[in-house]
């Protein structure tokens, strides 16, 4: 098969760039740990979520200096982010929050616009993502996977003060 | 001098091809109405009347556009080409398989559409479990898939017969590419067929109580990614085989064209996880492996880009064009059969770049499930692929009916193309931008309780709606052009098949060793999926019961 000299050059440059690119993605994923939410962190019976730890106590819990765990249950069409007495999540600016979220019914999404927080919530699986909120504000948390008739209303907030 | 109809296809074959093409445009029209309404709803300019749901419309739009318009057009186009290049007419058996496929797909498709209209299946075209549609919806889908298999068998049958009667000869390039396209389709649809027939039908009927959600998503995306290559390969057939003839040039290299098709076949299936990067249940290692495999399609894509521009340049030089860009001047810009597909090629440059962003592990977190993604595939499938299919229509219908493309329709075609591009610039451009800002896809009008972020998205949604309206006007013009083509003056239109510039002996025969290629595809699939799927089937996974949440 005859391949023109220019085409060989073109392909060689293209393929070299491709491998550099894949190297960068690979290194940042495995050496620097910028991973998408993955793995079976733990699996959970989607019909019994509310009885199983940590989801029996949803809400935001301090786990260290400026470090919090947010345990959230999603359902059509909302998120449970705390007990009745304190349903709204609040953290001081500069806090690192570990979100631990699952779904009790269909597939939902979990996105905080303006950040890299973006993951799927699949019934039967627990999704986790971590984010440090440097700036104050009322961050919108929205469902970005179609989940039913009122999907566009499915949202909550985290307040950073 | 009065001319009669001079048909380039046997009328019986023409009828089969025409049935597919016209059905495709019928779906495009219905889908376009839905698309335009979606864009004005999201722009906050319109509220749907009479209890029509936004997600009901979106389900219809996704299925009509992504499944019906594309699949029907592709099968029609491929059948026309194999009839023309492999024997001059379809074999009776091929024709029967083609009609049987058409009947099954159409029957199944109408059931699916009825379920959507009855609001019993507002599950979008991805029908993610555990959202549960009426059983008829899944049965309808199964018929569509099985029908398309019959159409594929027809193409394989014609090809096998040609090989048998032309021993030792190289198969026609169009025929070879049609076989690769349908092979890709058959292997890819096995995934969705298993999902629908083994998982979803028994569950929706009530024979099983729960469904393995991760497995169903994985089976879906095992199919969902090659689906986009199923749209792209016929587009490439036009670019590789048809366009050289239309511009009065030659195919750059028969061998490289075949090689790039084989590479696309190999690397478009074992890669579905790049649609699941943001979900739990799959380990980062397997996600990364599939990302690497995904990026291998960069190689045949670069080859394709090189070949196409080499064809243009070679052709320019033969016609005396000088300088680095002289070849641009001698291209037939005023011929819609060239202009529309060429604009599709140009759109593919930003579209491909966007695809690289989507498939990159980390950058995907920024764009996943935002309108960026919707903007992306309106460039790929709704511009590159759609404009190429429109370009094909301007000669394919006259070829079948024994008529000619008039100057007037040609001109309307150019206007149509420009309008489509302008509409897309607005719609896809604002989808990309507002997607980067975080606005989610698949979401009806909302300002999230007037949250400041969401309010800032609104101007882009309005621009999106303006684009949507322009696109719809362009779409209606396309339908008008199709009708005009059906009533064009009698005459003869040649089937524009390019000839290779290199002698045919240069094409190595191993490219037609199907056993080898299919085995390689199977090995790659087993490599990429066995361990993660075993993991999903593990003993401690939980099934989910079904819900109707709309
Ligand atoms: C008149 C032209 C068109 C308009 C105005 C239009 C408009 C839209 C809009 C506004 C959406 C996004 C809705 C949302 O995410 O909330 C959408 C989704 C979509 N469009 Fe189009 N579109 C057009 C043509 C096409 C064509 C030609 C194709 C494919 C051949 C196509 C395929 C799709 C697909 C697959 C989706 C995704 C559906 C989903 O998320 O479930 N569209 N379209
Ligand atoms: Cu939702
Ligand atoms: Cu893909």
TrEMBL record, chain A:
Reactions catalysed according to its record: 4 Fe(II)-[cytochrome c] + O2 + 8 H(+)(in) = 4 Fe(III)-[cytochrome c] + 2 H2O + 4 H(+)(out)
Annotated compartments: Cell envelope
Key words of the record: Copper, Membrane, Metal-binding, Transmembrane, Transmembrane helix
Pfam family membership, one: COX2
Domain (Cytochrome oxidase subunit II copper A binding): residue spans on this chain: 65-161
Transmembrane segments: 9-32
GO molecular function: copper ion binding; cytochrome-c oxidase activity
Source organism, top-level taxon: Bacteria
GO CC terms, sorted: cell envelope; membrane
Function: Subunits I and II form the functional core of the enzyme complex. Electrons originating in cytochrome c are transferred via heme a and Cu(A) to the binuclear center formed by heme a3 and Cu(B).
Name of the protein: Cytochrome aa3 subunit 2
The species this protein was found in: Paenibacillus nanensis
